[in-house]
Protein 1
Amino acid sequence: MHAWWSPDDSVSFLEAELLRAFPGRSLRRLAPGFLGIDEVPEAGMLPMAFAGQALPNAESVAVPSIRVMAEALAQRILDHFPDDAPWRMDVTPCFGQGTAGEHRCAMIDEAVVEILRKRRRSRLRTRLTAPGPVVPNESWLQLLLTSQESAVLSVAPSPVAHAWRSGLVPFPLGRIPVAVDKAAPSRAFAKLVESEFRLGARIQAGETVVDLGACPGSWTYVAVRRGARVTSVDRTELREDLMRNPNVTFHRGDAFSFQPSAPVDWLVCDVIAAPDRSIGLAIDWVRKGWARRFVVTIKFKGVEEYPKLDRLKLELAPLCSEFRLARLCANKNEASVIGSCPLPDAGRQ
Ligand SMILES: C[S@@+](CC[C@H](N)C(=O)[O-])C[C@H]1O[C@@H](n2cnc3c(N)ncnc32)[C@H](O)[C@@H]1O
């Protein structure tokens, strides 16, 4: 079985998304917020926009004691995770209020480490603790406590974790801390920073960026601070300092009719528009090879529009080497489609 976890306010949307993705299958409710499906085909590796975290190879387990659980986890790591390869372990409470279960989770984590130290110390050297993109030989273990005595366990040895990377977020329950920068023109800058994190790629010095719907300029601000050259498109001018920045070319006009003179490294688009238009724009730019990487916000007026995201999985994901679709932690009222589609280097702007 594979499962997904979603925060309370999104479970019904995740349920609908799963039923659309896997028609005819029945869902298993493992615990509040956890939905599972048996025998998910390849498509299961596509991201679920309304899931906070994917849980490949999931099962419900009893947690009779810290020691028994830690023994079981250590054994899984020793038996299933390749030697000398990176692995992550996340033991997180997912029930009750406030700090419920946190102490128990910390004790389980410590007990696993202690067992590994005694049985195969070298394993501890390859444990990843800093957040980062899922690499090809990485293995994942997630234990999400659903009460003091029960949990959902997900074990994804290499290469399963990498195959599921579009839905695996290297923070407990997929909760990426929202970035803060008071000098940015608006808090929208956090959406671009989170999108880069999800993709595992950052805008680099010397790269070219087109920012559609750029005003007041937070996304342009992020890109120029990284040393990129940005063409910012909007009907309204950006904050004054950005308008004067030599690395910013402002283009007053319609985002949907803008065409780059040559392919760029990044398309970033935060235009306020109907979902169909933003979805169409993302697909169009990728099909035409106009951008190597993209971050496009899909804004919703109502929940009935959520199924429109499915088109991105069908039409855009197959064109991409990396594809993410998520409601960002930095903004829950919209979804972001993020991806990479390598282009030849020649001919870029
Ligand atoms: C949410 S704001 C963008 C915020 C921006 N990402 C930032 O971080 O500062 C949306 C912008 O889209 C612009 N916009 C809406 N429709 C547009 C269109 N058809 N062409 C160009 N800009 C458009 C609006 O003028 C507005 O400035």
Protein 2
Amino acid sequence: MNFKDLRINGQRLKSTIEELAKIGGTPGGGMHRLSLTDADKKARDLLVQWMREIQLEISIDEMGNIFGKKRGGKDDLPLVLSGSHLDTQPFGGRFDGILGVTGALEALRVLRENRMETRRTVAMVNWTDEEGTRFAPAMLGSGVWTGKFDRDWAYSRPDVQGIKFGEELERIGYRGQAPARNWPVHAYFEYHIEQGPVLEKIGKRIGVPKGILGIIWYDVWVEGKANQAGPTPMDARNDALVAAAEMVLKLNKLPGKMGGDMVTTVGEIHNSPNSRNIIPDRVRFTVDIRSWDDGLKKKAAEELEKEFAGISRRRGCPVRMEVIWDIPHTVFDPNLAQRVEKTARQLGYSGHSMVSGAGHDAAYVNQVAPTAMIFVPSMGGRSHVEVENTSWEDCEAGANVLLHCLLRSANE
Ligand SMILES: [Zn+2]
């Protein structure tokens, strides 16, 4: 077969995604498959089985990243890599990350069944703990693989129950032998849902991100004084939750004040002792600030620390802020991005250049290898929720773009 006529099997891609959606699926039609849980192990086992079926050379590294290679004619050349992640948010969706892993698997299935030989080796990957929900920060697997994080530090990261990443990796049997160290990669393509409203709104099928917004994450602890809700007068309180509430609103107003494309979020908050008739004395919450402009993001963080200190003083509630993640904005390889755009056009799909608001493993891989992403529309712009959805036609279109980008890069 002429490789120009090659297409992925949309029906098979759909049933692969549906099979995976049964592992950790929620009654609301979403996914609850946090990193290194039993559900994650089951999904990994199934993926490995599928990879074996098409005779990929499988290797699992010390971070549990799963790689599968289909050797090229010149396998001493840097290879071409594609993948994403199988872990999900709590009550997240069926497509985030999963589409990129299954899309790469589908592309490799097509190469195998058509006996397509490539010059370079083509490989796929499932990165460990992309979401960072259970073990923060996000992208621990690709972060260690690209040398951004230390392996033992990653192993020591605890979940909310104090269980360590390394222990859980061992427990589910995915602490592999291969060193979690990057090797020469000729091109990395990550196929992903957009997770925003842009493509749907303008009626385009393939998004071509020029890069990813920079992100800073804080953990914030506010301390107050617990007391009886009845007898304690309003002017004699150090209410940690009220101080935190003021901080949340301050953060929400920050983008308007700073300008640019900044977005800010408090997505997680823990109140203690969390009783209706006790004034709260301990609150912990998260802060997420994103912007394309790294300087603006830094200024916003400084402004925030100043504002929080002021609120803390005024309310007599000591605050502690810890930066747990700070990543500059990512600029993808312009040549590879162009390849995505051109390939989409040649396959008859409309394309659109954009930026990614969401973080991806591609941000770290981009630091060690030429990288690009392929986006398809998210219905209603919804993601990290159970109703996250993308039409099967769009899933198929994006996978076709991925297949042909892989082929082009692998035959260079
Ligand atoms: Zn993702």
Protein 3
Amino acid sequence: MEDRQRLGRHLPVMADEVLTALAVRPGGRYVDATVGEGGMSERLLDACSPDGRLLALDWDEEALALSASRLARFEGRVNFVRSSFAELRRVLAEVGWGEGADGIIVDLGVSTLQLGRDARGFSFQVDAPLDMRMDQRLAETAADLCNTLPERELADTIYQYGEERASRRIARAIVQRRAETPLRTTGDLRASVLSAGVRGRPGHDPATRTFQALRIAVNRELEQLESLLERGWELLRPGGRLAFLTYHSLEDRLVKQAFTMWSASCLCPPERPVCGCGWSPKVRRITRRKQTASQQEILRNPRARSAGLRVVERLAA
Ligand SMILES: C[S@@+](CC[C@H](N)C(=O)[O-])C[C@H]1O[C@@H](n2cnc3c(N)ncnc32)[C@H](O)[C@@H]1O
């Protein structure tokens, strides 16, 4: 952990809104599926004091160690598990919460800790090994993808996950570069993006979208989210609430689609005159539309700028 932390501590995003939307109360059972540096968990544990309990998950070993030390004063009320949230159903059963939680928060994306650690390779602001794995047990790094994916697949990845219009030019530049020498560092990747003539939006580095795309691909972020959303209401007890904080449209779209389906009263195609699906709504929506951070919070914490909160409550069977 000797790397310098350039960006300071991760400030939890929209914590007041999350606690209100989850209706956190003493004695409840809560899950922080992405504990990170533990800021949101700390607020949750305070709010459910004196006897509420928390299951804290993260697949990043460093994040778990850091949050465990930050939350040491709640000893006996927190259970830390190193796991992807895609495995939450199994983890709940293992800790004896198989019938579900009263509240779950999933704060997606990358933490300030990860961005600030030079050795992790998430940031284009320092030259570091091109890694980007949130869980170091994952097999492939961003360098592996850059050096092995066929040009077309690389371009599709950058387009789909980065929504980068210059994806083809960037993929070509990466492939040309690696033909001479493999990409090893964040600087190599950024230089490839710049050599493709990408300008970027005002106020954003030209490599922002490419870095986001590779991070999503390395960590299979959307697949993890889809697994969690699969019958996700079953992770809650009746009356329990599930909250997502998303930071880009790809994540938000998946959450929105799932919540729309779960809260629908019928899943029949619209042209069908009589309902035959037998579906009943599983949840009610607590947030009608995506809730965003206040201007004051965005000024304090620029990361909150792109955050969106969506919350549902499980209905009684
Ligand atoms: C935005 S940070 C969470 C910050 C946290 N709410 C706080 O207040 O410090 C996101 C965290 O989610 C973790 N993460 C991302 N995808 C994950 C997954 N599939 N399973 C478990 N943890 C994941 C990352 O390792 C990172 O620590």
Protein 4
Amino acid sequence: MQTTQCPICSSDIIIEEEAAEKDLVSCLNCGAELEIITLHPLLLEPLQDSTEEDK
Ligand SMILES: [Zn+2]
């Protein structure tokens, strides 16, 4: 398990051990959906083109 910072709100995000590239994680603080671009180094990118559908 490792942690990184949310690119939007800079709060800590926990990345599970089994996370893979292109997995999606959610920021618990701001709710942003983030895609794991690479694991080494750990790089997250916010999903920009979100269709505004209700969940
Ligand atoms: Zn955030």
